[in-house]
Specification:
Elements: H1 5-11, H2 13-24, E1 31-36, H3 42-54, H4 68-74, E2 81-84, H5 93-103, E3 113-117, H6 125-136, E4 142-148, H7 156-159, E5 163-167, H8 172-181, H9 186-195, H10 199-206, H11 209-225, H12 229-243, H13 247-269, H14 281-288, H15 293-309, H16 316-329
Helix pairs in contact: 1-2, 3-4, 5-6, 8-9, 9-10, 11-12, 11-13, 12-16, 13-14, 13-15, 15-16
Length: 334
Amino acid sequence: MAVVWEELEQYQPIVLRLLANSIEKGRVAHAYLFEGQRGTGKKEVSVLFAKSLFCFNRVEYKPCNECINCRRIDSRNHPDVHWIEPDGQSIKKGQIEALQEEFSKTGVESNQKLYVINHADKMTTNAANSLLKFLEEPYRGTTAILLTEQYHRMLTTIISRCQVLSFQPLPPTVLANYLKEQQIPLHLALLAAHVTNNREEAIELSRDDWFAEARKIVLQLYEALNKNNLQALFVIHEKWIPHFQDKQQIDIGLDLLLYLYKDLLYLQLGQLENIIYRDRMNDLQQWALTCSQKRIIQNMSTVLQAKARLNTNMNVQLLMEQLILNLKEGRTFV
């Protein structure tokens, strides 16, 4: 099913408003640079924008998504809309030259043409210089859209010739709602939406049995911390270490623990709308009675210190054992 303007407007309202204004006022720029993290909707917006430019039945700035042009753009076979992807690890000069050659011809079906370059930061130096000449002397009726996750790797001369639109990370509430629409259970949707603000990663994570088990182990660890050191260390050795096998997974595990402490703080502050582990509300209420706000904040700081130490050469097992002792005794890393 084709994405519609209203759907993308939820994720990137500023970008969509700017593009809508440019279409309505007939002031479409000759080149745009969409920059932002992966999964923030850059590619989807470029498709939607292309359809708005070529749609036969556009209403104001919104494409109909039904006409032959909209359907052909969705399937990437419109003769006047061209898509450039990296050839292997890079976009090569020959690809840009072939594009220039194609655009030197008259539009097949109209007097306008559009090209989209995905991962524009992966252009070779020669390709980037070739594109620069194209941007400096654009053909009439030509529109370019460059997509990048690595804005800092782009030539400043290319950036200066584009209208730069920055795609913002998705708010957790918006992403959680999107995940729920994909039939993700609420307790996993809320958690995945906080671990990452990338739609693709959030879906992949929330559908992974590893993630559901990780959440379960973190809750078991917290319950054990409320009992005694030996119980918590048992969970670390028997469940945590076998499950969280590399630094990236450990970092996610520490994030899940951090969110649990945040929930206790939100509960004490009466900010119930911010709570992530909502399906464990009864447990949270009991746990919140046993610790002060000062202790919760201190333990949050201790978890953050452990996350920072992941980037050092500290032994992971030793790190986790030290974390347990510090959380239990209200200490920080030294």
